[in-house]
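FYI - complex with PBG, inputs then prediction.
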Amino acid sequence: MPFPTHRLRRLRATEALRSLVRETRLDPARFILPLFVCPGEGVKREIGSMPDNYQMSIDQLVKECAEVQALGIGGIILFGLPESKDEMASGAYDENGIVQRAIRAIRRETPGLLVMTDVCNCEYTSHGHCGYIKDGAVDNDITLEWLAKAALSHVRAGADIVAPSDMMDGRVGAIRRALDAGGFEKTPILAYAAKFASVFYGPFREAAESAPQFGDRRGYQMDPANGREAMREIELDIEEGADMVMVKPAMPYLDLIWQARQRFDVPIAAYQVSGEYAMIMAAARNGWLDQERAMMESLTSIARAGAGVILTYFAKPAARSLA
Ligand code: PBG
């Protein structure tokens, strides 16, 4: 029956009614906070393009982790800034590397906190690319060996979940085999399955000091135009043994989060990346957007699209706002 029988505004009249029929609710337990660990002692350096986010030495990082845990946030994902970089990304799979030491410290200080690690080489190579360079391009299969070693070293140090973000073909299978052979058949893999060659990673590359010194990442990360290919990437990662899959970035790719949610019965994660965060913060600092509302609306949209897990630099303020 047409108007005036149906009046959708009836259920919007008061906050009590709106709350009763709200379809999507956020919960800090589904947030993962990305953290950047650097060498030194007492270091807490704010990242220029990512206000309220820091490069932290291990002693500062463990304090941050205690706060994250107290806020009921689902966990953290760690990125490392090594002492030095080389052609072979040796810092990435060094048993005593920056991330490996950080994991051990976090395990000691906040044993219950869920610790994920980003498995990639770009923060550790002198050229800033995600793997071994052969004939001017990243060689897939040699890079797989580095990734498998890195993942194994993270899990040995105590990581709960490893998350490969390099976009090499076959990395999930290679990491699964290495973990199983090392006796870690119970450790899950979260694959950055549909990861696009996105301009929105710009601020992160300042934070992680990982900008490529020549060329770009379009030879391995996905073309933003390709949605069907994203579904193939996800399907292959699940076949290779991924326990969870990720779409990244989040807000420009909500259609793919939604499609993935419809097609695959594994947990779907989405990464609200550095550029998404920076845009909101920059507008808010200019007085052009309300920061609190932009944060909550963007996170709600990502959840509504179908992401069960959200990696976000807003994890702390959003958790406080939900408390
Ligand atoms: C490592 C990696 C990147 C991000 C997560 N892991 C950078 C890149 O691929 O260039 C980006 C995260 C963000 O922008 O917040 N490969």
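The chain has a mean pLDDT of 97. The chain has one domain: 25-322.
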